[in-house]
Amino acid sequence: MTDTPIKDIAGIVQSTRDYHNTGVTKSYEWRVKQLKAVSRMMSENVAEWEKALDADLKQNTFLKTTEVVSTITEVDNAISNLKSWMKPKIQPNLTVMNMPGTAMIHKEPYGTVLIISPFNYPISLLTKPLVGALAAGNCAIVKPSELSENVSATFARLIPRYLDTNAVKVILGAIPESTELLKHHFDYILYTGSPVVGKVVMKAAAEHLTPVTLELGGKSPCIVDKDVNMEVAAKRIAWGKFLNLGQTCVAPDYIFVHKQVKAQLIQKLKENVKTFYGNDPKTSNDYSRIISQRHAERLIKLLEGCESKIAMGGDGDANNKYISPTIVDEPNLESKLMREEIFGPILPIMSYDDLDQVIKFINDRPKPLALYLFSSNGKLSDKLINETSSGAVIVNDVVVHNTVSTLPFGGVGNSGMGAYNGEFTFDTFTHQKTVLLKPTWIDPFARYPPYDSNKIAI
Ligand code: NAD
């Protein structure tokens, strides 16, 4: 499918804005109709979505199912709760000057919003924000990633077939198309991708004073204490790291393990990788592929200089977009591997004996999207929660927190700003407008001049 002509983008944005101004998208009925259409767009085309995921990332059955089902779950949740989410919220009116009067928060759609999504979970990272944007009564222009080209083409084919074509538009393309889009005025932008591009988006948004949510990446640390259920810890870490070949924004990027249990952890990780993907992961149906040859080459370069420290894997075949599950034992902390977000199936493991040193290491670096701790010691989790800053802290698991729709999903500092998931997505795309309703049958005189000491203070 061809990219959207750049010369058409201004007109697409303007016509979408004009449509929002008609007010059609504000009604409960319109919103529910669109949400149901998103659900049908997924459920009636499962084979097509799965084929696209296969072609882009060779995703396994678990990942493919999750991509489709998580969207449907998000829609179901939005439909079930939409009436209560939309309801104006009456607030207590505490000021004497405004009595009598009714204070409330009116939930207003921002207008026309832009959603830019990355390649790694190419369906859900576009549809989950879209569900919230539509539930909140917005029009949306979506720009999926050019790297996951098959999924992006599927969006371009199916969205016009299911959704209100005046309200939801797909822009296909890469940097030139995004750059053109970002020149225009949107009422809100939700961007998911790398911190480098997040800065570009925020600068462009500033020109129009457009509010943004930035869902970014970075290095998410994972700490393994000596007081740990190693069977479960190693299994969950191996699963969360090598799932989608490490191309998961909240994948554990690196591990700090207590020196007493490092050998045991490495041994158990190896065993689990073998159980999950067999002796040769390249032939496993459950082992995905790197999105592009360029990214595979980037990962192979990350391993340069680490050859003597490879404790597992280390094989790369950029032509086939393959990198084996790899463990690097005690890499140099100044190496590229430990400075850049890995976003691939390479797991650096370092040992520690003083948790305060690990906390200092984490606090000296950009704030992570997720921070993981495996420990049976409740005091350690309290310490980590209180002494570090990250988008999330998860104890004794990895990656799964974004499936809890009652929790906001987002980063802090370099890993992002704002959050979404369930009702938080609705709130993200909703302007909370202050409304104060006052009668005129009474008009207390105290606020009007002339003021003298006989007037009551308000
Ligand atoms: P990316 O930043 O390269 O691209 C993401 C999107 O931005 C794509 O649609 C791309 O076309 C567009 N884009 C790229 N360069 C641009 C530019 N100069 N101007 C405007 N738009 C531009 O990210 P990616 O490689 O697709 O994804 C990987 C990154 O995304 C990692 O850093 C990962 O951690 C992060 N990520 C974060 C989350 C999250 O929820 N926080 C989820 C997934 C991925």
What's the quick description here?
This protein is of the alpha/beta class and 458 residues long.
Question: Layout of helices and strands, plus pairs?
Answer:
Blueprint: H1 6-21, H2 28-43, H3 46-57, H4 61-86, E1 89-91, E2 102-109, E3 112-116, H5 124-135, E4 139-143, H6 149-162, E5 168-170, H7 175-182, E6 188-192, H8 195-207, E7 212-215, E8 220-224, H9 230-242, E9 252-258, H10 262-277, H11 293-302, E10 310-312, E11 316-317, E12 322-323, E13 326-329, H12 336-339, E14 346-352, H13 355-363, E15 370-374, H14 378-387, E16 392-395, E17 416-417, H15 423-428, E18 430-437
Helix pairs in contact: 1-7, 2-4, 2-5, 2-6, 3-6, 4-5, 9-10
Distinctive features:
Ald_DH_CS_GLU, 7-stranded mixed sheet, Aldehyde_DH_dom, Aldehyde dehydrogenase, 15 helices, Ald_DH_N, alpha/beta, 458 residues, binds nicotinamide-adenine-dinucleotide, NAD
Describe the structure.
This protein is of the alpha/beta class and 458 residues long. Helices cover 40% and strands 18% of the residues. The protein has 15 helices and 18 strands. The strands form four sheets. A seven-stranded mixed β-sheet has the order 10-13-14-9-8-15-16, sandwiched between helices. A six-stranded mixed β-sheet has the order 5-4-3-6-7-17, with helices on both faces. Helix 1 packs across helix 7, helix 2 packs across helix 6 and helix 4 runs parallel beside helix 5. The chain starts with 5 loop residues before the first helix and ends in a 21-residue tail after the last strand. The mean pLDDT is 96. The protein binds nicotinamide-adenine-dinucleotide. The site of nicotinamide-adenine-dinucleotide has 28 residues, from helix 7 and helix 8. This is Aldehyde dehydrogenase. It comes from Acrasis kona. Belongs to the aldehyde dehydrogenase family.
